[in-house]
Design a protein that fits this description.
This protein has about 350 residues and is α/β, with parallel strands linked by helices. It contains 13 helices and 10 strands. It has a 6-stranded mixed beta sheet, sandwiched between helices. It has a 4-stranded parallel beta sheet with strand order 2-1-3-4, sandwiched between helices. The longest helix is centred in the middle third of the chain and has 40 residues, at about 150-190. The N and C termini lie far apart (about 50 Å).
């Protein structure tokens, strides 16, 4: 397991409100088999083009890396190729940003050919604009005297860019085939006149656990961010007269890389067709209101409007907050103890 120091670079933010972000980055790192040994925080007034953080904090970070014998530094922000290269030269260890961390988690979690293709596209699109920086040194090395070898680095870059572009196009054609097959399946479901219910929520809120409670077939569950990237559709029979198709979706997260939002949009297509959304919220998380807001904002950005939604506050067995008065659109449950599940079923029927 890699040993890492977490560098929290924030702008215009009270450092007292940063603990939930630190905990989330620690959990993301753990999901990628990285142990966070300690963390540094800097409230940045002016971002350094060379290192992102200031020189004083860079020295402190270097000392932290050496004292802990860390082999990795994880930044909570997106870094440019130049910044990563400069930081690695000073810190004498690998440097990754939050985008790279999430991409790596998705790469490790992908199981089906479709999910793997989506992850590869996201990774290629993330790396594509960063390729130029990696060839700057090559261009200098092969420039030679005068103009004899001018442009060799650029030629290599253009060749590799074309190869990447062809690979992306190939993968997108494959995804289009998966999409067409999924549309046929969805059309059949819609023609069956059986209601569609979609689970949405922040990653690790308990969507897959709730799916297991509502139907017989087990889907993968683990207490970890992005434990599964696969989506599932299952028939649920609440009683003799009430049946529906239940769809799980990939978990949401704050500041999800834009390319991943695009790449995994297909996993969220069922949301726009749903007759009802179950928004699963980890009630035991001190930051659950912010997570709830992230999901709602993401749905709005996808154009999902006017679909009835039940707020399902999960994991009440893990919290001491016992003010569980159900509203007209809210229910409090525990997928572990099954408390409130009957209330949820009745609300779904209604």
């Amino acid at each position: 397991m890699d040993k890492a120091i977490l560098m929290m670079a924030i702008t215009n933010q009270n450092t007292d409100d940063i603990n939930p972000q630190i905990e989330e980055l620690i959990n993301l790192s753990f999901a990628c088999e990285i142990e966070i040994l300690s963390h540094e925080i800097q409230n940045i007034k002016s971002i350094s083009n060379a290192y992102y953080i200031g020189s004083g904090k860079l020295d402190a970070l270097k000392n932290e890396v050496e004292d802990n014998e860390a082999n990795l530094v994880v930044f909570n922000v997106g870094l440019s190729p130049t910044q990563i290269r400069n930081l690695e030269g000073i810190l004498n260890c690998d440097v990754i940003d939050k985008n790279m961390l999430i991409l790596e988690i998705f790469k490790r979690r992908a199981r089906t050919p479709e999910a793997k293709a989506q992850v590869e596209i996201a990774n290629l699109k993330y790396m594509f604009p960063r390729m130029a920086g990696s060839y700057e040194a090559l261009g200098r090395q092969v420039s030679g005297f005068g103009n004899r070898n001018r442009g060799l680095g650029e030629t290599k870059l253009e060749l590799d860019r074309r190869a990447v572009d062809r690979r992306i196009q190939k993968l997108e054609r494959e995804l289009e085939k998966y999409k067409q097959a999924r549309q046929m399946t969805r059309k059949q479901k819609l023609q069956s006149n059986m209601p569609l219910v979609a689970l949405v929520g922040y990653t690790n809120a308990g969507k897959s656990s709730l799916m297991n409670v509502l139907q017989d077939k087990e889907v993968f569950v683990e207490d970890m961010l992005f434990a599964s990237l696969e989506t599932y559709a299952r028939r649920v029979d609440l009683d003799d007269n009430h049946h529906f198709i239940l769809h799980d979706t990939v978990g949401f997260i704050q500041d999800l890389p834009h390319n991943l939002i695009n790449a995994f949009h297909s996993t969220l297509e069922e949301v726009s067709d749903a007759d009802l959304l179950l928004h699963v919220i980890d009630y035991s998380n001190p930051n659950f209101e912010k997570q709830k807001e992230t999901v709602v904002n993401t749905l709005e950005s996808m154009g999902v409007h006017d679909i009835p939604m039940i707020n399902v506050f999960n994991k009440i067995d893990l919290t001491e907050n016992k003010s569980l008065s159900n509203g007209t659109q809210s229910v409090f449950i525990s997928t572990e103890t099954l408390q409130g599940i009957d209330d949820l079923k009745n609300m779904i029927i209604a």
